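Private note to self, pasted from the team thread so I don't lose it. C-alpha cells:
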C-alpha cells in the first residue's frame, strides 16, 4: 500500500552531515532520490526485523521500527516511520552507511 510521508532528519547532526555533502556527490544525489521516493511512499524500503534493530538506535532515538533503503554502490539509508498525527506519516532519516559500516552496525 502506498503511503505518502513527510521526510525529515531525525536530528540536527544528521541534517548537518547531509548539507556538508557536495552537490555533485553521488551520495547526496542518491539521498535526494531516496527522499523523493519516501515522500511518495514511506514503505518503499525493506523493514528490518525488530530483533535486529541496533540498541544504539533504540536508546538514542526511542524507535520501535527500522527500515533500510538501498542506495547505489552498496550504501544504505536507515530510517524510521512515525506518525505526527492520525493523518500525517513522518519518515525520519537516521543515517547512511557504506556496506562495510552497515555490516558492522548490524553485526553481520
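Design output:
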Amino acid at each position: 500500500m502506498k503511503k505518502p510521508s513527510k521526510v525529515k532528519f531525525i536530528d540536527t547532526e544528521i541534517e548537518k552531515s547531509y548539507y556538508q555533502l557536495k552537490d555533485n556527490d553521488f551520495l547526496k544525489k542518491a539521498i535526494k532520490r531516496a527522499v523523493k521516493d519516501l515522500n511518495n511512499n514511506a514503505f518503499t524500503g525493506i523493514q528490518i526485523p525488530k530483533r535486529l534493530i541496533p540498541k544504539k538506535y533504540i536508546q538514542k532515538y526511542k524507535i520501535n521500527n527500522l527500515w533500510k533503503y538501498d542506495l547505489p554502490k552498496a550504501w544504505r539509508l536507515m530510517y524510521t516511520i512515525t506518525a505526527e498525527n492520525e493523518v500525517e506519516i513522518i519518515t525520519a532519516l537516521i543515517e547512511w552507511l557504506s556496506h562495510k559500516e552497515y555490516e558492522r552496525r548490524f553485526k553481520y
